[in-house]
Amino acid sequence: MNVRKSFGTHPVIKGVDVEIADGEFVILVGPSGCGKSTLLRMLAGLENITAGEIRIGEKVVNQLAPKERDIAMVFQNYALYPHMTVAENMAFSLKLKGASKAEIETRVKPAAEILGLSALLGRYPRQLSGGQRQRVAMGRAIVRDPQVFLFDEPLSNLDAKLRVAMRAEIKELHQRLKTTTVYVTHDQIEAMTMADKIVVMHDGVVEQIGAPLELYDRPANLFVAGFIGSPA
Ligand code: ADP
Ligand code: MG
């Protein structure tokens, strides 16, 4: 993708050019307000782009509505339907697409198993812990078997201990499914421990792109050095 975005006359994404390989786990990291969510929403089709181009595979998707893009997004506030069970929450998008009952079952069951939710399929969101809710939100994404997962600070509402455990779970999930993932966080430790590749953003531009150790050993500038935490 190579994109710009303004709200009114205010440029928020000032020209961001990122290539993501198939199967890669990429983390967009940067301080609050630097444009991470906006960029992710542009990928998802929830935000128009002011200039530039977004491609998924060979396909230019700029003009495609969110549901026409082969992506699934997981938000920080889970956005579960409170009146639906875990199974119904996970099945919802498939139902909308007109999937048969049998098809829904063959997708929901294994996803629930991967996420350790098999025993909780009949529960409602209010009967779940924060970590379990987060897993349901991931389950909703997994059942769609998308080409790309988008995560926007999925762990920021969890306590520190659970956050660390969920990082490992999300990584394991990625190793298992190998789905291309773009993951947003403002937490540099999360970025350093989870990413194949990190995109460091600052005020609507990309400061550096590289593997975690590369950024740590050879930060491109003082901002990256300060943010990633190496003493350059
Ligand atoms: P981040 O996710 O990195 O914290 P955002 O992408 O949410 O940053 O926001 C980037 C900038 O764009 C911020 O200055 C924010 O105030 C602004 N912004 C985000 N959404 C809107 C909007 N709908 N209208 C106007 N300004 C917005
Ligand atoms: Mg954000």
UniProtKB/TrEMBL annotation:
<comment type="similarity">
    <text>Belongs to the ABC transporter superfamily.</text>
</comment>
<dbReference type="GO" id="GO:0005524">
    <property type="term" value="F:ATP binding"/>
</dbReference>
<keyword id="KW-0813">Transport</keyword>
<feature type="domain" description="ABC transporter">
    <location>
        <begin position="1"/>
        <end position="228"/>
    </location>
</feature>
<protein>
    <submittedName>
        <fullName>Sn-glycerol-3-phosphate ABC transporter ATP-binding protein UgpC</fullName>
    </submittedName>
</protein>
<keyword id="KW-0547">Nucleotide-binding</keyword>
<keyword id="KW-0067">ATP-binding</keyword>
